[in-house]
């Protein structure tokens, strides 16, 4: 289940394509215990309603017991109670809302929880001398999770949120809301979007209004589409994001193969996370030998340690949360310096208290 339409279309599509590439690779080398992997793909539409419909089709019609997805937190939180009640695996490479950690015993993810994103963002803001913050947030579970945890850590350090605005996913003109935020005299603007399209538009419109202060954001805001829309307006923006290690040969191999196959790259970490999910699933299917054995698959997930595109030696804790991965601080480069999927420079880990 991925968001092949809706506000999460860009990363849902790249995740779905990465999964298909991984499945094709596995099948080309003999499959799982001599059997081919077949991906049955449904569009979760980046919404709880869409995810429930996709889940119902996959389980009731197709008899699926192991679901890789979803792209969006709203979709994950919508489908997770059904999966937990039915004893169906729900394994996401992208959904990051903190509440997913409490979703149940059959729920796993390689995406890092927004709890850590918020801690890192709040610490970064404070270390950079930001004391008065304005926030603009898309009204979705993912975006609110980023805002909530970031603000909590920033306020814990002593910062103050002087203005806050929310917007619906159908909004394209943010000038009125941005003007209200800037009238409050913030030291910085924090952006929490669900879609790359809104992220790019907000950054661009903020600069067009004459705002020349710092902008802070997260993974979606440094996606290829977002930065293409924002152009030079995004130069210097800082974000807390997961990134593929340039020194990890597997990560670079996956990127090269994806680029050759699909002729584009966006959100490399999301791509790598989705890719790893298929290989992890294949390993657990090798152990169980049965795609209907969700309990055996679950037990395999709790015991597995994996090295792949997104990192080496990571595993899952008792809540199905990934352990052994971390995010970094990045700064967006000027347009003239953006090459390939490298649109920003890595500044290093987020500062600690």
Helix content: 40-55%
What's the total helix number? 11
Major sheet: arrangement of strands: 5-4-6-7-8-12-13
Specify the structural class. Answer: alpha/beta
Average of the residue pLDDT scores: 96
Helix-strand pattern, N to C?
HHEHEEHEHEHEHEHEHHHEEEEE
Q: Assembly type of the shown chains? A: single chain
Largest sheet: 7 strands, mixed
How large is the share of residues in beta strands?
A: 15-25%
Rg estimate, integer Å: 20 Å
Give a description of the structure:
The chain has helices at residues 9-28, 48-61, 73-86, 114-127, 141-157, 175-183, 196-208, 224-230, 249-262, 268-288, 294-303, and strands spanning 66-68, 89-92, 107-109, 132-138, 160-167, 188-192, 215-217, 238-241, 305-308, 311-316, 322-323, 328-332, 344-348. It is of the alpha/beta class and 353 residues long. The strands form 3 sheets. Strands 5-4-6-7-8-12-13 form a 7-stranded mixed beta sheet, with helices on both faces. The protein has a 3-stranded parallel beta sheet with strand order 1-2-3, with helices on both faces. Helix 10 (268-288) crosses helix 11 (294-303). It is globular.
